[in-house]
Design a protein that fits this description.
alpha/beta, eight-stranded parallel β-barrel, 8 strands, 41% helix
């Protein structure tokens, strides 16, 4: 039996400002109360250092990094730069980057390798589009994507998987608990097949319109080890109930 602590991670995407950092104090207070729950927040790059100064017990991270350590990659940021800025984690392979920046599975894997090598907790995102779910090929798609995006594990940095059905991101539609149980089970099987016992320790988050109303139901599902939260992580009012639901699960 593997006991995995819940992780609730917020992704601010291209939102937030200095003023929005006022949300951190009540989120940090809730995180301190939530025994057994890890809380993280990934604001835009420009707010990382400022957020760290106000983070309390919350881990602050980034929403992406490049696979290279340095070089001619205008507009990009390396994993080592994030570490120097004080980041503890990074998200790679978010569907918005896979779509908007045409990021391939190979590139995402290289980013994950670079992030882990730099010592960052690395949240690797996978998920299917609506057509694949309707066609019944959602598990096949996610396992294929995972197979090609998975980095090698390291002893000194944690890999986390986030299952985020693309049709549920920012839409207000959420996977049902049955959908989540099905997908998280096949992801767990693949992680165990690839990494053995270490695969049982990898946390698998659900992401896609998680909110105060649906969080408890999702956290009760087998192999749902927390959530990656977009819109509802922007305010303490919306994010704190999700942290509390994780603590009660
Ligand atoms: C996300 O961006 O990872 C996400 C899950 O967004 P939302 O919670 O807004 O659907």
């Amino acid at each position: 039996m593997h006991v995995r602590r819940k992780l609730v991670a917020g992704n601010w995407k291209m939102n937030g400002s200095r003023a929005a950092l006022a949300e951190l104090a009540p989120i940090a207070a809730a995180a301190r109360e939530a025994a057994g729950v890890d809380v993280a927040l990934c604001p835009p790059f420009t707010l990382i250092t400022l957020a760290i100064a106000r983070a309390g017990g919350i881990s602050i991270g980034a929403q992406d990094c490049h696979s290279a350590a340095s070089g001619a990659h205008t507009g990009n940021v390396s994993a080592a730069m994030l570490v120097e800025a004080g980041a503890k984690l990074v998200i790679v392979g978010h569907s918005e980057r896979r779509q908007d920046q045409c990021e391939s599975d190979d590139f995402v894997r290289d980013k994950a390798e670079a992030a882990l090598a730099a010592g960052l907790q690395t949240i690797l995102c996978v998920g299917e589009v609506e057509e694949e779910r309707v066609a019944g090929t959602h598990c096949q798609k996610v396992l294929y994507q995972l197979d090609r995006s998975l980095p090698e594990l390291r002893a000194d940095a944690e890999l986390v998987i986030a299952y985020e059905p693309i049709w549920a991101i920012g839409t207000g539609r959420t996977a049902t608990p049955a959908d989540a149980i099905e997908m998280h089970a096949v992801i767990r099987e693949q992680l165990a097949a690839r990494f053995g016992d270490a695969g049982q320790r990898i946390r698998i988050l659900y992401g896609g319109s998680v909110n105060a109303a649906n969080a408890a139901g999702l956290f009760a599902c087998d192999n749902v080890d927390g959530a990656l939260v977009g819109g509802a992580s922007l305010t303490a009012e919306a994010f704190v109930p999700i942290i509390e639901a994780a603590a009660k699960s």
